[in-house]
Amino acid sequence: MRKTWHVRIPATTANLGAGFDSLGMALTIYNDFYFTADSQVDTITVTVSGKGEGTLSGDFSRNLIGRAMQYAATAKHTVLPSGGHLRAVNRIPLNRGLGSSSTAIVGGLLLGDAVTEGSLSTQELLDLATLMEGHPDNVAPAILGGLTVSIQENKRIFCQKLPFPEALQAVVVVPEAEVPTAAARKVLPKQVPHAAAVYNAGRVGFFLASLWAQQYDQLQYGMQDMLHVPYRLPLITGGKEALQAALAAGAKGATISGSGSTLIAIATANAPQIAAAMAAVFASYHIRTESHILHCDEEGARISTVV
């Protein structure tokens, strides 16, 4: 009987305002990947359904999940099965700042590890995923779940996982227009004023302290940013007004999710009204959106076998 492995990886939101490339949180929307080894064939086929169907590569060696599987096998000095089938069921929008690429990387690493008799530690997964992604802010919560604070030191990732209050919801509004990560990084300056660095250091600490103290009305101040949001927000038509509309509708804080184009608002109540207010701004620019009211996923990536 052929064996199938299944991984479920949560969406993630990075930065949460001031925590550029360090803060990340897992969210309750998921991509599911399945791999079935088949010794009767000598190729690995790929099918994609949902988000990215018809656009993501069906070539195993070019598909990001397949590349991550191979990356895991190479790191372990072993080889993948020569034949099988990879199936991706994608629900997370692509190139919208919700960690779709991180799900592919983390999911591929977990599958690649599992089919080669699973020996990678959580630390090794974090390190390998960051090497592929380039920064840990999305891959860390995708692996661990919860709210994560990550730093890099000599190519090693140090990460602390924090619980996110159950009282808080994440309202995400996803415009139809993409903002590729490469384009969002290109607009960032190579240097920033010292005052901007001081501003952000204070805000990210204040954000975490406000969560710990359950002072949710203070979150909007901790989510203010001077390192990336002022440069990326102009890439999102209607984005500035949508963030203002979220706060006016009762959000405790609002910012760009990752590098955009998704916007995220933190709410204790009125989540549907906040989503509607943000979507209405985009509609005034004739931009279609999809909205989700989510919670923090505390479990992170999980893998199982399917018979």
Automatic annotation (TrEMBL):
It catalyses: L-homoserine + ATP = O-phospho-L-homoserine + ADP + H(+). ATP binds at P93, L94, N95, R96, G97, L98, G99, S100, S101, S102, T103. It is found in: Cytoplasm. Pfam families: GHMP_kinases_C, GHMP_kinases_N. Its main location: cytoplasm. The keyword Transferase applies. Keywords: Amino-acid biosynthesis, ATP-binding, Cytoplasm, Kinase, Nucleotide-binding, Threonine biosynthesis, Transferase. Pathway: Amino-acid biosynthesis; L-threonine biosynthesis; L-threonine from L-aspartate: step 4/5. Residues 231-282 form the GHMP kinase C-terminal domain. Its EC number is 2.7.1.39. The keyword Ribonucleoprotein does not apply. Catalyzes the ATP-dependent phosphorylation of L-homoserine to L-homoserine phosphate. Belongs to the GHMP kinase family. Homoserine kinase subfamily. HAMAP family: Homoser_kinase (MF_00384). This is Homoserine kinase. The gene is thrB.
